[in-house]
Amino acid sequence: MDFSFSDEQSMLKDSVERFIQNDYGFEQRQKVAALDAGFSAENWKTFAELGWLGVPFAEADGGFGGGAVDTMLLAEQFGKGLVVEPYVPTVLLAGGFLKVAGSAEQKHKYLTGIIDGSVQGAFAFAEPQGRFNFADLTTTAEAAGDGYTLNGYKAVVINGPAADLLVISARTSGGQRDTEGVSLFLVDASAEGISRRDYPTVDALRASEITLENVKLTADALIGELGGGLPIIDEVVDGAILAIGAEAVGSMEVLYKDTVEYCKTREQFGQPIGKFQVLQHRMVDMFMEYEQAKSLMYMAAMRLDEGYGDEAAKAVSAFKVQVGKSGRFVGQNAVQLHGGMGMTEELNIGHYFKRLTMIDTMFGNVDHHLKRFGSL
Amino acid sequence: MNLGLDDAERAFQIDVREFIDAHWPEGAREVGGAMAHPPGRRSVAEQHWYDALCARGWSVPNWPVAHGGTGWTPTQHYIWDRETTRAECPVMSAFGARMLAPVIYAWGSTAQQAKFLPPIREARVQWCQGYSEPGAGSDLASLRTRAVRDGDHYVVNGAKTWTTEAHVADWMFCLVRTNTTTERRQQGISFLLIDMASPGIEVHPILLLGDQHSVNSVTLTDVRVPVANLIGEENHGWTYAKGLLTHERTGIAGIATSQVRLGKLKQMAACEQDGALAEDAVFQRKLQEVEIELMALEMTELRTLATVQEGGAPGPESSILKIKGTELRQRIADLQIEALGYYGLPYPDDLLLGNEGPVGPDGALDSLRRMLYGRAASILGGSNEIQKNIIAKAVLGF
Lengths: 376, 398
Ligand SMILES: Cc1cc2nc3c(=O)[nH]c(=O)nc-3n(C[C@H](O)[C@H](O)[C@H](O)COP(=O)(O)OP(=O)(O)OC[C@H]3O[C@@H](n4cnc5c(N)ncnc54)[C@H](O)[C@@H]3O)c2cc1C
Hints:
The complex is a heterodimer of chains A (about 375) and B (about 400). Chain A contains eleven helices and ten strands. Chain A has helices at about 5-25, 25-35, 40-50, 70-80, 85-100, 105-115, 230-265, 275-305, 310-335, 350-360, 365-375, and strands at about 120-125, 140-145, 145-160, 165-170, 180-190, 195-200, 205-215, 220-225, 265-270, 270. In chain A, the strands form three sheets. A four-stranded mixed β-sheet of chain A has the order 1-4-5-8, with helices on one face. The radius of gyration of chain A is 21 Å and the shape is globular. Chain B has helices at about 5-25, 25-30, 45-55, 75-85, 95-105, 110-120, 235-255, 255-270, 280-310, 315-340, 365-375, 385-395, and strands at about 125-130, 145-150, 155-165, 170-175, 190-195, 200-205, 215-225. In chain B, the strands form two sheets. Chain B has a four-stranded antiparallel β-sheet, with no helix packed on it. In chain B, strands 1-4-5 form a three-stranded mixed β-sheet. In chain B, helix 9 runs antiparallel to helix 10 (about 315-340) and helix 10 runs antiparallel to helix 12 (about 385-395). The longest helix of chain B is centred in the C-terminal third of the chain and has 29 residues, at about 280-310. The two termini of chain B are about 35 Å apart. The model of chain B has no long low-confidence stretch (mean pLDDT about 90). Classes of the chains: A alpha+beta (about 375), B alpha+beta (about 400). Chains A and B meet through strand 6, strand 9, helix 9, helix 10 and helix 11 of A and helix 10, helix 11 and helix 12 of B. Flavin-adenine dinucleotide (FAD) sits at the interface of chains B and A.
């Protein structure tokens, strides 16, 4: 057992930490989030220059050869800064599918663009009826000539508005919820037959509803085996869960520390409110929730780096459950202990709370991952 | 003891239902919702509802009969609350009708009662509550807004914050400091009624999570307030304000509203496409737990009402209603977001880009707003921590 980071990992962590501290203060973050695009193209270029967009990819593919621990370190810092740049959808989801299941040609075609920052991606999987079940699909891909025709509807596609490259899940055989028969396709977002409706999400990200109407795909759009998409989704999404969970851990750290700071300075009844023991205990609980989540974050990252399988998936689900519960507790109490101030749009606290709310839902909430944990 | 309605009560219930059907028909319900809009911002249907209430003498049921109340029994009040909440009837703004009026009819002069009560009863005037200040939240008695006597006026200087509806209010009831040298800080506070149109008042919006501007900061610079607008005696305002807070607390519990929301959530879970939630034992169990807690709280409320009916004011028990009531409201709002799945995420608010209106199932955006704004329920009206301090002291004797 070894809980220390390699030199490269420490350097990566330091460089992201510096960026957040120097260039991503809360005010700057709010300005960036309010841009039409919802993030800064300039920041994205910086991410590329600093090599962050290549972190998870093999050196042979132009990447940094990093593993789960590396993405974890990066995402944790992103969570502290409430970064809105679409790292997860582009690098870990679109990029993740290429890494896990892409053919040499597919990698060659897209990875360079993702790593140099010129290509944005998104994973279009959710459907209005499907809740958190990746296999519950009414979107279909029918064989047509030597390609496919896509029809269907995808809901709440994070980074849909900016994406050049969509990874779309669709049913190629079987019944609506069958685990077999799910296939994955790489689709040019500007392809004919795709229409979008864009909107912001509660935590200031951008998402789309996407309608697919007779979208024509060539045979090389298929990623992975025909009908064998579900295990690929599990693996790629578990990597993404580690990242958003790590973001949540970063956010919780800011929340508990800022709350402690606030309670030391805010005075009521002639003393800092932090003198009230009931509030001290609440902050101790917040601190413990953060630590527990952080522990499972390390566990999930290390399991994922051992190689993907049930052990890793189980650790990821355990982590997601903890993040959902801890995030809710820490977020709600940070607001509560800040009193009216915690409710304002002006203060950072409420924005972290909103981000944690979003993370709880994303890729399945507490109940969903409890069930998955039990079934693995 | 028995829980059933007797014949007279059942007849009353039918009467109430007929009244609602006549004056707040199904068709109107989508328009108004259970909001308290100030005069001038109401839909035609909403204004009609208030007019009908006044004509029937039902606009302020909880007031003493002498001032226009109904003299109903606790059971009748209960029936009224449940029926109007279920039909999502517009509610009278609490600031005037529930919070200020009890102070005026208990401590106001006859002239003040004649001047201020009728417009509240007739829903013609919007009030706001000027208590909190940047430095005085939970510790309200530390407030610093000064009122200095000058002939037959007070000159008021200071800053209030978190003032709900100040931007649409005609009047503000306000706590001010009239004596800075008293031994106990509570002793130098007075209760003033301030016309919001007075020169020297500035109102600035504060945007809150999930809110579309209801809260404000208010600055008062050399605002002249006639001495005639002082309630009761100078420096005794704290006593009046405290009496008022217990009324505020029972109001915040919102038990009937929670029942309606829970009902809707159950319905939604039952008829969701593919039935994923209806078959989800874990989610169903959470709904049932909330339902049981609500039942308990409803009985606690009824027990409180019975005490009030026997002549008591709502005492420290109102703190139970406030704590448990707000916790349940927040839990139901959280469950609503859980039920929505990914459609609990879109936030097509006009604060940000994209204003094409809501996506996802009906009411998804409202649920999200309610969940976010609902976090305030455990902060305002005396935070839940402060309520527990009150129970510990007043009930448990610490
Ligand atoms: C949406 C909203 C609407 C409002 N509307 C109005 C209005 O119309 N008029 C008006 O006058 N005010 C209004 N308020 C203000 C509200 O009453 C105050 O926010 C509330 O009293 C808490 O004060 P504070 O925000 O200064 O928090 P603080 O008093 O600073 O409290 C911060 C935290 O410390 C805790 N705390 C404080 N003292 C103790 C203690 N002794 N023991 C344990 N814990 C303690 C609190 O519980 C809270 O968690 C509104 C507030 C909100 C959020």
